[in-house]
From TrEMBL, chains A, B:
GO MF terms held by the record: homoserine O-acetyltransferase activity; homoserine O-succinyltransferase activity
Entry EC no(s): 2.3.1.46
Subunit-level organization: Homodimer.
Name of protein: Homoserine O-succinyltransferase
Organism whose genome encodes this protein: Paraconexibacter algicola
Family to which this protein belongs: Belongs to the AB hydrolase superfamily. MetX family.
Entry GO terms, CC: cytoplasm
Length: 361, 361
């Protein structure tokens, strides 16, 4: 999180006297938010762009070393020479904003599972309070991929007055049963780790987190992408005669997943994983009733051809639901990529142009 | 395993004096095999059909209650009124045939990870010894889906004189990197379970096995199939205010996976899971060198449209490799189904006819 080139700031936005009232009915305070801003804010405060991050992101998105360095920075699609780009860490995260690994003021220990359940609406309520704190009444645009796109969707549906443009990338309005099932397997791996114990582990349940991350990572990549990188290795002529060595044999893709898991476990919190994963399962803004969608917000819906988590089918259903509600979908496009779900992070051909056009529209 | 209607027989096929010599170089004895036979054996012993099972199968395949009851039984595609059907449990399994949960004669305790590593060739060597024991020189056909198909492929490539027909269903000659990665995640979940310990658990690592089975099961079903069954549930308006209850919330697909995992853990052995999963990763008969495939064996290659484990692409590559080696692929067909990989177990439209035709060809 952060870098030598930038400073992630923190601000307390909710206090005991003015707590955050959550969708579940519980109150949360204090709520501190870690965020960065980059680029000049116009006199009329009309050029602010909110970037919402996905499950494992943080407040440091900007080039040269942030998680969205391909697209956020000077001269990039989300141009910090033109826009005042705001990148908060989300509620429930573990990168500076209050979450389940924060200290519970009542006990002086981490909340763990005493932290309240969250919804995407709760995440967005904190974003709005941050915008108030920064004096931003209306965003030029809100942008996000995956869980970030779900936050943009919530802004669009519940607070359309607060944004002029919504960029919804590699995201969905509702998880499929397969999405829910894969997330459930990852959570089961974390909860199965005895180090997790009753929800207040003595140490991080690294092993369970490692399993969860391996699975998550496989689902973020495409079959063709994995095959291109790791498919060409040769099998051994005969297995190692020792079963422990044989089972420990690492095909190239396994070594890759081992590295990914180790790096992830070192930087991410298992409680945040559980909370943010579960709240995505609950998302279904169009399910309960027909939704009116403001025609005042210009919507752009982007997906990637090889994304099998929130791919083109999800994007098509999302765009159709927005249109059915009266929303204005200016652009709906499937970008060709073999990067799978992770494509939204990368410099896929045509992608930067689409982001830039959406911000200029 | 077994049923009130049938008796699974057992026979010791390798002894200390005549051990099974494995691909890894180690010797294994005793090797006992659990198997069933159904249907009359012709005077000339020409009507024997070997059915090879997949990862979690056993020796009891036949209707009305066996794992392949849709297709093996009187009047079914693999007709026990016409054919002498032989269904062994495979080496390394946990349903009567010697495997890692069998007693190690040197210690009087289960082998666990002291059991030797296996290859598909080792599994087939035991099948051939069983055929010798039964006096079957040449099979009318060998049939198998998934890992069962890999055993049929090994028979075809290494022992073509022993069979006249090879039915290769929902299978592959080589796992993709994604296949390997998903299997690696499942193994990691089992190995992560502290009950697994150093490979000789005090109890079964049920929790890790449950995680592995949940993942496996998701990959055996199609996205559309899961959505059709479990997609229509409604999300809660607000989450339960208690995080433990909220995280314990079960969407219908999660309840389904919980049931699948519990049933699986009760009947299957984690060591067998590790061994059989790993040996599939190592399969690559066409990788090392060009292979000559006997034109004497009639090959049928079937796959299912929604199978994303060993689907139509795998079948196409397999059929192409067989033809390139001079093999005779009489039929290569993708059957339409939304059952995913598990379709090979079910009564998919057109499937029974294809199996029956392949046996009559």
């Amino acid at each position: 999180m952060g870098s030598a080139l930038t400073a992630t700031r923190r601000v307390v936005l909710f206090t005991e006297d003015d707590p955050l009232v959550l969708a579940c009915g519980r109150r949360l305070a204090p709520v501190e938010v870690a965020y960065e801003t980059h680029g000049p804010l116009a006199q009329d405060r009309s050029n602010a762009v909110l970037v919402c991050h996905a499950l494992t992101g943080d407040a440091h998105a900007v080039a040269p070393d942030g998680w969205w360095r391909e697209h956020v920075g000077p001269g990039l699609a989300i141009d910090t020479e033109r826009f005042h780009v705001i990148t908060p860490n989300l509620l429930g995260g573990c990168a500076g904003t209050t979450g389940p690994s924060s200290t519970d003021p009542r006990t002086g220990r981490p909340y763990g599972l005493d932290f309240p359940p969250l919804t995407v609406g709760d995440l967005v309520a904190v974003h709005l309070r941050l915008l108030d704190h920064l004096g931003i009444d209306r965003l030029h645009a809100a942008v996000g991929g995956s869980l970030g796109g779900m936050q943009v969707l919530e802004l669009l549906l519940e607070h359309p007055r607060r944004l002029a443009r919504a960029l919804l990338v590699a995201t969905t309005a509702r998880l499929t049963a397969q999405n829910v099932a894969l997330s459930a397997v990852a959570r089961a791996a974390i909860l199965a780790d005895p180090a997790f114990g009753a929800g207040r582990p003595t140490r991080d349940p690294d092993v369970g987190m490692g399993v969860a991350r391996r699975l998550g990572h496989v689902t973020y990549l495409s079959e063709q992408g994995l095959e291109a990188r790791f498919g060409e290795h040769r099998r051994a002529a005969a297995p190692d005669p020792d079963a422990r060595a044989w089972l420990a044999t690492r095909h190239p893709v396994e070594r890759y997943l081992d590295r990914q898991a180790a790096a992830f476990v070192a930087r991410f919190d298992p409680w945040s994983y559980l909370y943010l994963s579960r709240l995505m399962d609950d998302l279904d803004p169009f399910g309960a009733r027909p939704r009116v969608v403001s025609p005042q917000v210009q919507c752009t819906v982007l997906s990637f051809s090889s994304d099998w988590r929130f791919g083109p089918d999800h994007a098509r259903r999302l765009a159709a639901a927005l249109r059915a509600g009266g929303g204005r979908v200016r652009r709906e496009l499937v970008l060709d990529s073999d990067h799978g779900h992770d494509a939204f992070l990368f410099d896929v051909p045509g992608y930067a142009r689409e982001l830039a056009d959406a911000l200029d529209a």
